[in-house]
Amino acid sequence: MPDEDVATIRAELLAAYETIQQQQRSLEKIVLERLEPIAVVGTGLRFPGGNDTLDGFEEFLRAGGSGIGPLPRERWDVADQDVEGRIGTVAGGFLDRVDEFDAQFFNIPPKSAPYVDPQQRLLLETAWEALENANIDPTALRHGNGAVYVGASPLDFALGLGTLGADQLDGAMATGLGAYSLSGRLSYFLGWRGPSLTADTACASSLTALHLAVEGLRRHESDIALCGAVNALHDPRSFIILSKGRMLSPDGRCKSFDDAADGYARAEGCGVLVLKRLSDAWQDGDTVLAIVRGTAIGQDGESAGLTAPNGVAQEAVMRTALANSRLEPADIQYVEAHGTGTPLGDPIEMGSIHGVFGGSRSHDDRLTVGSLKSNIGHMEPAAGVGAVIKVILQLRAGVFYPSLIDAPSGRIPWHDYSVTVPTECRPWEAPVRRATVNGFGVTGAIGVAVLEEAPQPPAPEVPPRDLPRDAGHVFTLSAKSETALRRQIERYRRFVAEHPDLDLADLCHTANTGRAHFRHRVAGEVRTHAELTALLDREAANPGVRPRESFRRVAFLFTGSGSQHVGMGEVLYARYPGFRARVDECDALFRPHLGRSITDLMFGRAPDAADVIAETRFAHAALFTLEYALASLWRSWRVEPAVLIGHSVGEVVAATVAGVFSLADGVAFLATRARLIESVAGAGGMAAVAAPVDEVAPLLERWPDLAVAAVNAPDQCVVSGGADSLAAVVEVLRERGAVVKPLRVSSAFHSPLVAGISDELREFLEGVEFHEPELTIISNETGAPASADEITTPAYWVRHVNDTVRFAAGVAAIAERGRHVMLEVGPAGVLTALARQCVPEGDHRWLASLSPRDADARTIRETLAHLYVAGVDIAWAAVHEGRQRQRVALPTYAFDRRRYGLPRRAADLDQVGHPLLGQAVPTEAPAREYASRISAGRPAYLADHRVGGKAFLPAAAHVEVLLALADELHGDAGRPIEDVRFHESVFLTDRPTRLRTRATPGADGRWRVDVHSRHDGEAGERRCASAVLGAPDAPALTDTGRELLRRLDDLGEPDQVLGADEVRAAYARAGLDYGPEFSRARAVRRHGADLAVCELSGEGLSTAEHLPPPLMDGVTHGLAAFVDDGESYVATGIARVRVFKKPRARLLRSVLRITRPERGPAFTLDAVLLEDGTPVLELSGMAFVRLSRAPSAPVAEPAAGVAADIGAANGNGGNGNRNGEGNGAGQAPPAPVADVIRRTLADLLSMDEADGVDGDTTFLELGVDSLVVVDLKDRLQSRLGLTLPLSAVLERPTVDQLATFLDHQLAGDPVGSRTGGDDDRG
Q1: Mean pLDDT on 444-459
Q2: Which residue intervals make up region (N-terminal hotdog fold) (predicted)?
């Protein structure tokens, strides 16, 4: 065969072989995508029994714990007529405080939170905890393809909404209920754009969601997925439905595989898994808890009934799950069964398990079967994820946990089945531990998952470089609110004390890289557990005195000549690969110009380093190398400068960092510049003078070879020039008393001596390619921001080497741009020491990168901590680059939870009459008697009226009882109520309290009324109030009321104005903790010594009441402007109350007058409530007495121990500046305008404290939607007297930005207002 034919055949064979190889690789990829294991890298859980951590849940299961408890009385009254006897069980698995939630953490306004299904709230918090358990900072994943798969059957919340009246419905319900919102809101909060869906297949929902998540990850629809499920039980009617279906166990226990099985126990809970493809988890360094080998879902199809299981179908899905996992039944040692404890379902499931696994087992090698439901009940849609988490713990520990079983079920042929149910902990011994998890829905859905213990990760292909061990570490901790931060600190104090052997480097690495970072921060450089404990102790000892710093900008200050020293940067070179790479790059570029290695000089590797590094060309090259690498290091850590300023040669580095020069050109320019300066003939020198330049410059006119080289501070400048002339002027200066310090330099920089190098330097620069700067540079020439046209010319840089360095003016120019972190990029803190003298020091933060005395990089770590606390967002993964650290389990976020509940149900009113008066009960005629049952949450608004942390019945509630009684007796609530007396307070708990109201008629048509209370479990009643229902008369104001209206018409400017937050704060100081319902005062204006006008919100009030207690209570809140002696007061009675109409307006006004009699009560008040000028209520002679000391249980209602808190915001105009300073762009805006915005937002969003609205928190983070933006714009227009376009708010989405804009508007400066709160130069 000819050679050419052989060559052709060989080529064809090789091509065919390559094609086969490509096809093989493609097939392997397809198979891998279809079958790649999915890693569980994190979990979050809230399960019955107080289980909310993996470790705690493992201890609970290992001990055979039970999470079953009685029905939650605090959620509904089990003694109600409509509920009593209808629920066929007495217990279940319930969570603690399921109604509490940190709404603002999840950007949900408190106003909207009550209308968000508790299942959503549980899911949000648990999902966050799962991500923290995985040590994943979710902020880095925003706008990525993260996916959310949720299993849920939201019913209870919808049932609750069905009983609300039309006026109680809210637009927030559109996203507060429904299955779609569970996944949608979680994806929205995280900013994930991958698949997001909620599966509802009843009790198979969890495993259905897991199946979809696994398939989505394998198809690369997402790179990370949250798979969770949730169940919350807060409406008794869902229990009644299941009771009528005979599904519930009477004693509230799931007796899985037990002979006593008699139905299931309902349970609530939430579990979330963090999932990744196994290869990605290994690549990302995640801790793999277990892997999902495969899943399958299916359906019973036709069976004995819709709710009857189909064993054949169950077997088929189990076999499919095994096939999808490429496993055989013999590979499985454990099955976590559905096992609800029903007489029908358990035997069928055990039969299907035997059908699949029996052939591979024997009585000597039994399959272990268990069910979590025996411990905590059946979490319904969340049961599957709970089972998966239990199996993960068993896989990890190598232990089978006990199921709670008393006697094996007689319906299961145990002697025929090779299965066993553990009743105590047993070791799980297998070459590879594997398990399946079953989940079956009530209408036939089937889900099965196959789990396997976590495999060992492969060894890294390239071993990591051995970096020196850090002597210290940066510890960080943050929260979204000051309260949450305090709780975080306490959690970490306990954690550190409980884990004294935990590696500090791993702890800090995990805290830095595995947590999101919020605005309220604590940080420090720590070297030992004792130092970390001390840091946390210091922070814990100073609650409320830790100001949240927020510096939107960083300025880089590049040091000039004279600061260089041998060893500078060496500690960074050894520890930070990025810094080392930039130093090596500069070294390679400088070597042709210098003829030697600059790093040998910098790090003292050359024997003559100490002498040579003082020479100009080497000193400048060393400074350039260090500072360029330092700037690169800081920027790699996401410390991005808003502005750059360099001192002399430092400006060359700044220009290179800003991109004016390429690195190669910057190096060449600096080397040429230094060489030319060294070539200057003649002796020269420099001296620092502690005197203003205006006093020094005139003295230099006698010596033409002298000049001012630099103006470094208002009282410090540098003189440079000929040595003899310099000596002469130094003598003159010292004679005049100036302190003069000669500088050790090799050349007379910025003096007439260097003028001779200008032509040659210009010639070199003509060949340099200049670029427009990417960052703002402050010019040494002008002391102002350099324009692109100016700084990109040879002429500029020629002048730069000759002219005065105007550093002080440059620092002032930076200060005009707002508050900055001034970060020195150089070998020491030389420039920051000078810069502090140029501007008010407290306006900025001053930090150094290095210190000559620092041998282990402590300075840069301390600076990192300071930058973090100042509000700079650090790229912590880059900081820890190259270090092999273990991610460790740390405490999860300490949520700042508040209670949120739906408004009181309208249906309840229909069932029990008036919510406070109740229903008529039999009594002897002619008396009339009524009874009601109330509690801390019934009516719901009572939960918002607290003293000393305890809910109690306000005086206004007693008045409402009397009004309702008058309506019952006369069909008219408008009769006067007289001689109201308060005898004893009624404190409320979650247990019901019975109110009994008895009315006895008199001969004159008046009724004597007594109100008694009795708590559940108490033997006797207590008289808490009494009054007289007056005879009918004309519905008109009294003379006192008419006088109040007359004074209202004649009001001038107020003497004092209190905002909503100030009113709440005043009452809080008296121990009254008002929630949103009782925080209705929007503003209080005091006129003179006795009159106050109060704006009150009428939104969200019940229409079923005559004068809703939250509104009437607010009528008296004008007291906050008068009672300023720090004492506490109690209301003892009201002389007369008259209601003229029901309130309906969104905004009402009350006018209040206080009188201080010489004898008797401490003061009395008279008030009129108005709606659009029409009287609603007149209150006369409400008396208060001073408490001589604070009793442990007040005997009557505290009014307010208030001290009027008039802040600076009420003492300045809207456009005033603080401390006489200008308001440059980026500077904190004037307090008055910012406070108005904060108060307005707090009112609109029902936030407790306006101070909680940070200046740079975006409106989106506060939960402001487009409708609230419109309301915000309208209210600001009204309060500030401005006409605002909607775009004014939309384009400035923070308090600071909007306040700066409005400040310019109020000052009549439309040009300044156009930039909003930001300066586009930075």
Answers
A1: 94
A2: 914-1035
Give yes or no: residues 46 and 64 share one domain.
yes
Query: The CATH number of the domain where 1023 resides is what?
Result: 3.10.129.110
CATH code of the domain in which 544 resides: 3.30.70.3290
Q: What pLDDT sits at residue 197?
A: 97
- List, in sequence order, every beta strand (DSSP E) within 178-308: 196-199, 225-231, 269-277, 290-299
Is residue 1312 predicted with pLDDT exceeding 70?
no
Strands (DSSP E) contained in 1114-1257 are 1129-1139, 1147-1155, 1163-1171, 1174-1186, 1197-1198
Distances in whole angstroms, Cα of residue 657 to Cα of each of 84, 144, 969: 76, 31, 85
For residue 1004, list its beta bridge partners. Answer: none
Rounded mean pLDDT of 234-262? 92
Residues 1006 and 1113 in one domain: no
Structure tokens at 1233: 């305008």
Are the C-beta atoms of 1182 and 1130 separated by less than 8 Å? no
Residue 551's pLDDT is 78
Q: Which of residues 408, 434, 453 is at a domain's end? A: 453
Neighbours of 1158 (CB within 10 A): 4
pLDDT at residue 463, rounded to an integer: 58
Please compute the mean of the pLDDT values over residues 1195-1217 and round it to a whole number.
29
HSE, CB side, 13 Å, CA atoms: give it for residue 1071: 20
Domain check: are 1128 and 1046 in the same one?
A: yes
> What's the pLDDT score for residue 1228?
40
Confidence band (pLDDT; 50, 70, 90) for 1270?
confident
Span of 162-166, 720-724, 899-903 with lowest mean pLDDT: 162-166
The whole-number average pLDDT for the span 514-543 is 93
The span from the CA of 902 to the CA of 110, in Å, is: 12
**Per-residue model confidence (pLDDT) at position 1259:** 84
Reported residue count of the chain is 1322
Q: What pLDDT digit, counting tens, does each position of 624-679 carry?
A: 999 999 999 999 999 999 999 999 999 999 999 999 999 999 999 999 999 999 88
- What does the H/E/C string look like for 63-84? CCCCCEEECCCCCCCCCCCCCC
Catalytic residue among 235, 286, 705, 1113: 1113
Alpha-carbon gap, residue 98 to 1153, rounded angstroms: 43
Residue 966 CA to residue 587 CA, distance in Å, equals 93
Mean residue pLDDT of the chain comes to 88
1176 lies in a domain?
yes
| Cα–Cα distances in angstroms (integers) from residue 388 to residues 53, 230, 273, 451, 701, in the given order | 15, 14, 9, 8, 86
Closest to 1076 in 3D by CA, of 1092, 1060, 1062: 1060
415 is catalytic: no
- Domain range enclosing 282: 36-453
133 and 215 share one domain:
yes
Q: Are residues 146 and 258 in the same domain?
A: yes
Contact status, residue 479 vs residue 897, Cβ threshold 8 Å: no
Q: Is residue 904 part of a domain?
A: no
Are 444 and 567 within one domain?
no
In what helix (H) or strand (E) does residue 1116 lie, and over which residues does it extend? none
Does 953 share its domain with 1093? Answer: no
Task: Give residue for tokens 């299993």.
Answer: 151
72 with 158, same domain: the answer is: yes
Q: How sure is the predictor about 1103, in pLDDT bands with cuts at 50, 70 and 90?
A: confident
Number of domains in the chain: 8
CATH assignment at residue 719: 3.30.70.250
Cis status of the peptide bond prior to 939, with omega within 30 of 0? yes
User: Which of the residues 945, 1087, 1106, 1304 is marked catalytic?
Assistant: 945
CATH of the domain at 269: 3.40.47.10
In a domain, 958, yes or no: yes
Residue 771 lies in a domain: yes
Residue 617 has pLDDT above 90, yes or no: yes
1166 labelled catalytic: no
Tell whether the torsion through CA atoms of 1186, 1191, 1194 and 1197 is positive or negative: positive
